[in-house]
């Protein structure tokens, strides 16, 4: 569906996107992740033909964006970052106007608009003025607009920014629903969002794609070393010394808790080394109440990847 | 074509949704009415009827109101789209930049002509109600030429205002810079055309002075050079606006 190869975009003062390449196949939901200013919006603007690139090529649905921009635009539904709308227009009026710009035939316009309104839960507010709608509704109007010409690909730039938790959940459900019929590329810096919706994650940092994989695989790649948590009843110094003496184990953190138990965070070469830790505890006669492998959260993975820059 | 018509409709709709349109109409129409009363009192004092069209088309309406009002109409055109981010939304549909610029121009130009409607209507009534001894005044040809002149001057002014609006995302900056160019241009060219010592400077002034042109149009004089000047200059500003919108995206 999307084929980006060797794309670079320079702004006068800086390099926004640096020779990136990736592909998205039909029917996928891909999360485009990165810290603020990493180049997400720039990439999406190039994908939708709003910004020209300095070098490289982008193909959407088999059409080259620099050669046949109109063909690409017909097939892409784009929700820009700030969800721009005309505040003085009514919802119906706006969606009809947008449908006409996107080449929806006059005879089909009313049906199409009603369809997307129903899909996005806007049926009740069709007559309301956009400027008087809540942020959540406005976001839905933006989504409805991006869908109105039935595009193959949806490009959504931070679709849930500025919404309250309830609205976020609604928009996410909507996107998941849309993914049944469309390919979705969604940018965000909210990690739970990606965990909740996306099948695959693209991480961009400082204009470069630093990772592209499923969430599980990204975790696995990072689990060359694993973290073991352990809670024992022992003296801090002796416990730290004993554990560190063992091969392949290293104490990262040790805290004496208020109830007298000692909490240890141990870096291990492999998660199976919990057995050795158990044996150690038995041999030393420490009472043991917890021994577990720490699960990497996506957040940690993200921080590690963007810090390491290369996986 | 369907897209183009949708864009023009949207422009007109937005124009008439905004309170600015009504404020502008209120003041311009009040001024037009005042101007007409003044014109009638001049005629009552024995002025020749031929001045009717001149007082209407090249009087204070043109010299004081239009250079202020046109930037107020045009400031919104692109500056607001930039501010709201809707320019991005527009240009990622199948809308092409020349189409968009032209649609916005036509929308604003239509509104400008709506402003002049009462002036034309007043003159028309005067024409119909003129007493028998001055039948046929004000002259129909002069009225037509005056209306054409108003349209041409408007085309150039709207094109300049639109161009200024493409340069910024701040409507006030667009309005003030448009106002400075229109008002400055009007007075400088008037000064050059009528008071400059050198014949060459006077010629340039005459070529650009909207005031002088409207005096001619309102007398029924149609000078093709002037018509060409307005059309080509308006086209140049629209072309420049297209280039700015195409290149200035972020």
Task: Pick out its properties.
heterodimer; A: alpha/beta; Rossmann fold; Alpha-Beta Plaits; 2 domains; 14 strands; 29% strand; B: 250 residues; mainly alpha; 12 helices
Structure description:
The complex is a heterodimer of chains A (311) and B (250). Chain A has a 6-stranded mixed beta sheet with strand order 6-7-8-3-9-10, sandwiched between helices. Chain A folds into 2 domains: 2-220, 3-Layer(aba) Sandwich (Rossmann fold), CATH 3.40.50; 224-295, 2-Layer Sandwich (Alpha-Beta Plaits). In chain A, a hairpin with a 5-residue loop joins strand 12 and strand 13. Chain A is an alpha/beta fold. The two termini of chain A are 25 Å apart. Chain A has 11 helices and 14 strands. In chain B, helix 1 (2-17) crosses helix 7. Chain B has one domain. Chain B has 250 residues and is mostly helical. Helix content of chain B is 83%, strand content 0%. Chain B has helices spanning 2-17, 19-44, 51-57, 60-74, 76-84, 86-91, 97-129, 140-166, 171-195, 199-208, 210-218, 224-247. At the A-B interface, helix 2 and helix 3 of A face helix 1 and helix 6 of B.
- Give the fraction of residues assigned to helices of chain B: over 70%
Percent of residues in β-strands of chain B = under 5%
Outline the low-pLDDT stretches of chain B. Answer: none
Q: Name the assembly state.
A: heterodimer
| Euclidean distance between termini CA atoms of chain B | 28 Å
Order of helices and strands of chain A: EEEHEEHEHHHEHEHEEHEHEEHEH
Count the beta strands of chain B.
0
Total separate domains of chain A: 2
Secondary-structure element pattern of chain B, one letter each: HHHHHHHHHHHH
Note the main sheet of chain A.
6 strands, mixed
Quick one: how many beta strands of chain A?
A: 14
Largest interface: A-B, 29 and 22 residues
């Amino acid at each position: 569906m999307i084929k980006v190869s060797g794309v670079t975009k320079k702004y006068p003062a800086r390099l926004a996107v640096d020779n990136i390449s990736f592909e998205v196949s039909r029917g996928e939901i891909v999360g485009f992740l990165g810290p603020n200013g990493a180049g997400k919006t720039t990439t999406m603007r190039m994908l939708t033909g709003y910004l020209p690139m300095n070098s490289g090529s982008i193909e959407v649905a088999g059409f080259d964006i620099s050669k046949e921009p109109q063909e690409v635009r017909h097939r892409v539904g784009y929700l820009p970052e700030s969800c721009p709308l005309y505040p003085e227009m009514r919802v119906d009026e706006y969606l009809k106007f947008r449908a006409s710009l996107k080449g929806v035939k006059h005879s089909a316009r009313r049906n199409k608009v009603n369809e997307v309104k129903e899909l996005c839960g806007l049926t009740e507010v069709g007559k309301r003025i956009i400027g008087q709608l809540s942020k959540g509704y406005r976001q839905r109007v933006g989504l409805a607009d991006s869908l109105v010409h039935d595009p193959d690909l949806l490009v959504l730039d931070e679709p849930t920014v500025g919404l309250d938790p309830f609205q976020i959940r609604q928009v996410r459900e909507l996107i998941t629903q849309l993914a049944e019929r469309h390919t979705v590329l969604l940018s965000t810096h909210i990690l739970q969002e990606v965990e909740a919706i996306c099948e695959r994650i693209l991480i961009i940092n400082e204009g470069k794609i630093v990772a592209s994989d499923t969430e599980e695989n990204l975790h696995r790649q990072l689990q060359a070393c694993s973290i073991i948590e352990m809670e024992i009843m022992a003296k801090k110094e002796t416990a730290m010394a004993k554990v560190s003496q063992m091969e392949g184990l290293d104490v990262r953190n040790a805290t004496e808790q208020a109830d007298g138990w000692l909490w240890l965070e141990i870096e291990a070469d492999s998660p199976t080394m919990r057995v050795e830790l158990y044996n150690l505890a038995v041999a030393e006669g420490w009472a043991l109440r917890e021994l577990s492998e720490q699960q990497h959260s996506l957040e940690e993975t993200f921080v590690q990847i963007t810090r390491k820059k290369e996986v | 074509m369907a897209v183009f018509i949708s864009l023009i409709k949207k422009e007109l709709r937005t124009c008439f949704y905004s309170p600015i349109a009504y404020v502008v109409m209120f003041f311009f129409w009040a001024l037009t009415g005042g101007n007409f009363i003044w014109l009638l009192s001049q005629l009552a004092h024995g002025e020749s009827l031929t001045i009717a069209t001149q007082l209407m088309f090249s009087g204070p309406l043109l010299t004081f109101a239009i250079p202020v009002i046109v930037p107020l109409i045009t400031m919104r055109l692109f500056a607001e789209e930039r501010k709201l981010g809707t320019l991005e939304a527009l240009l990622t549909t199948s809308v092409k930049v020349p189409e968009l610029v032209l649609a916005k121009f036509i929308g604003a130009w239509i509104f400008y002509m709506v402003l002049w409607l009462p002036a034309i209507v007043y003159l028309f009534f005067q024409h119909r109600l003129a007493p028998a001894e001055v039948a046929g005044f004000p002259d129909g040809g002069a009225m037509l030429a005056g209306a054409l002149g108003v349209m041409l001057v408007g085309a150039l002014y709207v094109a300049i205002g639109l161009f200024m609006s493409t340069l910024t995302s701040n409507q006030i900056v667009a309005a003030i810079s448009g106002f400075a160019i229109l008002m400055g241009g009007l007075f400088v060219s008037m000064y050059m055309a009528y008071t400059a010592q050198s014949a060459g400077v006077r010629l340039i002034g005459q070529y650009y002075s909207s005031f002088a042109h409207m005096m001619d149009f309102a007398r029924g004089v149609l000078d093709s050079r002037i018509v060409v000047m307005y059309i080509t200059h308006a086209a140049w500003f629209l072309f420049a606006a297209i280039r700015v919108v195409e290149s200035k995206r972020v």
